[in-house]
Amino acid sequence: MSDGHSGGQGGDGSWGYGTSDPYSSSDPYGSSDPYGAYDPYATTSSATGGEDQLASPGFGPEFGGSPVAAPADAAYPTPAYATAGYGMPAYAVAPPTAGSAIAALVLGILSLTLCQGIVGPVGLIFSIIAMRQAAPGAVPVQGGRGLAIAGLVTSILGTLLLAFWIVCIVLMFVLVATVPTDY
Questions:
Q1: What is the pTM of this model?
Q2: Most CB atoms closer than 10 Å: which of 54, 58, 129, 135?
Q3: Phi/psi class of residue 150: alpha, beta or left (left: φ > 0; alpha: ψ in -120 to 50)?
Q4: Contact at 8 Å (CB) between 95 and 147?
Q5: Over its length of 183 residues, how does the chain's per-residue pLDDT go in tens digits?
Q6: From the centroid of its chain, how far is CA 101?
């Protein structure tokens, strides 16, 4: 019984080209194994003669033993950092912060807020000293370069504020001195 189509299942159970249904099998998953005799989830492999791959040395972590050092001709070099216990990397301790960097930041903030620029030049001096102490090649190594930069910026702004006030005061004296007083 043909329904007029050139393909599809005919009335006799054939698929139009003389072949039987490829999916009609008693096994619901098909009878052909796409991997051949290899089963990727099996603990033994028929290709290796029944040897257990999971128990072979070098496969997966080994528990209960002492750590084994890598051979000298290993493909990857050993890391340059030391390890603290249990294979965790040891982190370097940050160098101490330069005290002049903290002083520069405090003086820079004070020059912008409370003192109206009077301590700005002193903060500039401390900032320059702190930048030299926290330089990448300085000996002894000290931290606080970011604090020194922040102190430098705030001290420069405080010094500019001081210069603005000085200019205002000088202009005020000049204008008062040039005003005629003969009424």
A1: 0.50
A2: 129
A3: alpha
A4: no
A5: 445 545 555 555 555 555 565 555 555 555 565 555 556 666 554 455 555 555 666 666 666 655 555 555 555 555 555 555 566 677 778 889 999 999 999 999 999 988 777 899 999 999 999 999 999 888 888 999 999 999 999 999 999 999 999 999 999 999 999 988 876
A6: 27
